[in-house]
């Protein structure tokens, strides 16, 4: 491991970048998932059609391809919009951090849409009817009845989506974001130890995904604790 001396700082800052991308992507994915699930369960055909198109596109296209199209496509689109107001602008480069985070969030959000939709459908209708009988308003029913029940049902798949986001952060090295895989590539060009470097990256990812798995497992136990008491 002495061959990695001088690179540990770079790996640390690369890890910080990975965690930042993960956090932003997770927020975007959850928001897109909830909005998509709500649209699919709505009575509006337009909203259902938009949500269906969203899930088909982002679940059907390869993730790396979506990332590249989003990175270069958004840069071109932003350039054209800005040029309408300032023709002197030649090109606007979209920051790799935001391009990667948004792309990963949209991709995983499409999967979360189906997870949340199924979880909402799994909520006992009797509980919702009982809440209405108690004169609870729609937002109160969602907050106190539907969302807690949906969250419990969605947790197992939600954990899988979190793992997917974490592993997908490795893709952003393709567009030049300096995360741990990017650092490993740069280090390998100098010390020529690909197995050591990429194994280091693998162990870092394994450590993070293990923490996520344990955290989700703890949340599942906590969310289902009332069921054990009912037995």
TrEMBL record:
It is a multi-pass membrane protein. The chain crosses the membrane at residues 12-37, 64-85, 97-113, 195-219. It is found in: Cell inner membrane; Cell membrane. InterPro entries: AA_ABC_transptr_permease_3TM, ABC_transp_permease_HisMQ, MetI-like, MetI-like_sf. One of its GO terms (molecular function) is transmembrane transporter activity. Pfam families: BPD_transp_1. Residues 15-216 form the ABC transmembrane type-1 domain. CDD domains: TM_PBP2. Its main location: membrane. Keywords: Cell inner membrane, Cell membrane, Membrane, Transmembrane, Transmembrane helix, Transport. One of its GO terms (cellular component) is ATP-binding cassette (ABC) transporter complex. Belongs to the binding-protein-dependent transport system permease family. HisMQ subfamily. PANTHER family: CATIONIC AMINO ACID TRANSPORTER, MEMBRANE COMPONENT. This is ABC transporter permease subunit. The lineage of its organism: Bacteria, Pseudomonadati, Pseudomonadota, Alphaproteobacteria, Hyphomicrobiales.
């Amino acid at each position: 491991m002495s061959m990695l001396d001088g690179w540990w700082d770079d790996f640390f800052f690369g890890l910080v970048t990975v965690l930042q991308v993960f956090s932003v992507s997770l927020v975007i994915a959850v928001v897109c998932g909830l909005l998509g699930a709500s649209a699919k369960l709505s009575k509006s055909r337009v909203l259902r059609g938009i949500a269906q198109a969203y899930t088909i596109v982002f679940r059907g296209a390869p993730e790396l391809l979506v990332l590249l199209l989003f990175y270069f496509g958004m840069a071109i689109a932003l350039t054209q919009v800005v040029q309408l107001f300032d023709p002197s602008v030649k090109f606007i480069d979209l920051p790799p951090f935001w391009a990667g985070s948004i792309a990963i969030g949209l991709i995983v959000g499409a999967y979360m849409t189906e997870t949340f939709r199924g979880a909402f459908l799994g909520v006992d209708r009797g509980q919702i009817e009982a809440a209405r009988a108690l004169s609870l308003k729609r937002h109160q029913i969602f907050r106190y009845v539907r969302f807690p029940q949906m969250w419990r049902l969605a947790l197992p798949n939600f954990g899988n989506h979190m793992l997917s986001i974490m592993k997908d952060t490795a893709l952003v090295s393709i567009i030049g974001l300096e995360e741990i895989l990017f650092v490993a590539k740069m280090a390998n060009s100098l010390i020529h130890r690909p197995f050591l470097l990429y194994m280091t990256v693998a162990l870092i990812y394994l450590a993070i995904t293990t923490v996520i798995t344990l955290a989700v497992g703890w949340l599942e136990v906590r969310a289902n604790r009332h069921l054990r008491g009912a037995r």
